[in-house]
Amino acid sequence: MASTQILQRRRKSVQSTRQITKAMELVAASKMRRATEVAQQGRSYRKAAHELLSRLSTVTDIVDHPLYTKREVKTRLYVAITSDRGLAGAYNSNIIKLLTKAAQQDQKDNITTKAIIIGNRGVQFIKRIDAIDLLAAFPSFGDHPTANDIRPILTSISELYENKEVDDVQLLYTVHQSNIAQVATSLSLLPARVDVSDPDAVESLNDVTFEPSITAVLDNVTERLLEVQIWQAMLESIASEHSMRMLSMKNATDNANDLIDDLTLAFNTARQANITQEIAEVTGGAEAMK
CA 244, CA 181: separation in Å to the nearest integer? Predict the structure, then answer.
């Protein structure tokens, strides 16, 4: 049995760790609430962009647009969103597993796999994988990504697709479904797709005059749509990261409480054993004196 001094030092150490994990849990909870609100607001913006593009697709042939051209997939590009920090549960590992599984399937299909990684955690992993060609790496953009942050990524993937260096672009990110449910998801970015589930519900724009031209309008809207998809994916990932870090720190705090209870019980047991031994020694000494 460990001595009372060792048990007491262990208990103090766990108590200090509990203070840290509790503080991190509260910070993550505060950031998570703000990030969730921003992510929910962005969903409406992305939906509106989709609806506008769907309406434009009724008056022009989008198949000829360079970002809509479908080709045989020989090279696939993955844009994966991870974080710069750990202590967020399975947040980074879920994206890495999704990317690894997709790369293995591409290898079976004789498809070259390339990647653009956002977040240092993902970069550290990809550097060790020979089957994936890392084209670019970006640090995490914090809790408030802007259009200027997204612009280099959007420009890179657009140029790679238009130059036929890649034939398909997939965006890997984590969807924030609730505070306790976050799902790693793959979203097809290019070739750009228009989802019109109910064509009759799409209002016709045949009688509308576009300036300077319908092609110019389509170019700008398509670019904005891709930008919104990346931006919204980042917002969802940020909210998911804070949620998973909050849950991870809560579990760590709960485990620390359980460990403190166990150490306290062991400390009391050891102390009682020492007291019993001392009483027995005193009693034995008194009997010997008689």
Answer: 9
290 domain residue, yes or no = no
Q: How many domains does the chain have?
A: 2
Contacts of 53 (CB under 8 A, 6+ apart): 194, 221, 222, 225
Residues 54, 197: Cα–Cα separation, whole Å: 10
Q: What is the pLDDT of residues 209-257, one digit of tens each?
A: 666 766 777 777 778 888 888 888 899 999 888 888 888 888 889 898 8
- In this prediction, residue 35 carries a pLDDT of 85
The secondary element (H helix, E strand) that includes residue 137 is strand 132-138
Angle at 273 between CA 270 and CA 277, to 5 degrees: 140
- Nearest CA to 36 out of 155, 130, 177 is that of 177
Domain that holds residue 207: 26-246
Q: Supply the CATH number for residue 274's domain.
A: 1.10.287.80
pTM: 0.81
Which one has a higher pLDDT value, 231 or 199? 231
pLDDT digits (tens, 9 = 90+) for 86-110: 888 888 889 999 999 999 898 898 9
Q: Which residue has the tokens 């690894």?
A: 100
Q: Are residues 258 and 127 in the same domain?
A: no
Shared domain for 63 and 8, answered yes or no, is: no
Q: Are 17 and 11 in contact (CB under 8 A)?
A: no
What average pLDDT does the segment 171-178 reach? 89
Q: Is residue 148 part of a domain?
A: yes
Who wins on pLDDT, 136 or 222? 136
Same domain, yes or no, for 260 and 122?
no
**Residue positions counted in the chain:** 290
